[in-house]
Specification:
This protein has 156 residues and is an alpha+beta fold. It folds into 2 domains: 81 residues, 2-Layer Sandwich (Translation Initiation Factor IF3); 33 residues, no CATH class. Helices cover 34% and strands 26% of the residues. It is elongated, with a radius of gyration of 25 Å. The protein starts with a helix and ends with a helix.
Length: 156
């Protein structure tokens, strides 16, 4: 499986906050470990694996073996951490399909006036041409201004 540099960069940023799901110890890459990695990829899609051991070539071999046997894409290899991606079954790319269409949900958090109570949290549906200001109010995009000179030239 091949990834474009843009996809790989997005996956690396998504994997930054993840904790390692599978850890490979001195016994190496066994059938049980491969089965666990496969199950993790099925449920999560993007996982981190920690490989204990100081041999870099062995870690690279494990990385390539996992990707070949499980049909996954290598995302990142830093030190003893391996990041692997395989799309979940039935997964739809959400980013490209939801961008710029229709309504979107925005959460507005306003602090209490006294500052001692909990902040108020409200969820609001916002249209494509609207934005939420820093104060929490919703503003529509203004229509584009046209030049007075250009409008005069068009009337002649």
């Amino acid at each position: 499986m091949k990834l474009t540099p843009v996809e790989r960069s997005a996956l690396r940023s998504d994997a930054h906050a993840l904790n390692p799901v599978v850890m490979i110890a001195e016994s190496g890459l066994t059938a049980g470990v491969l089965k666990e990695i496969d199950a993790s990829l099925n449920s999560h899609g993007l996982i981190k694996i920690r490989v204990f051991g100081d041999d870099r070539e062995a870690r690279i071999a494990i990385y390539e073996t996992i990707c070949d046997k499980l049909g996954a894409a290598p995302v990142q290899h830093i030190g003893k951490l391996l990041v692997i991606y395989r799309p979940k079954k039935g997964e739809v790319k959400e980013r490209s399909e939801t961008r710029g269409k229709g309504l979107r949900e925005v959460t507005i958090v306003k602090p209490s006036p006294s500052g001692t109570k909990r902040p108020s949290v409200t969820k609001v549906m916002v249209k494509g041409n609207e934005r939420v200001t820093q104060g929490g109010s919703i503003k529509r995009a203004k229509p584009r201004q046209s030049s007075a000179k250009k409008s005069q030239l068009g009337k002649r």
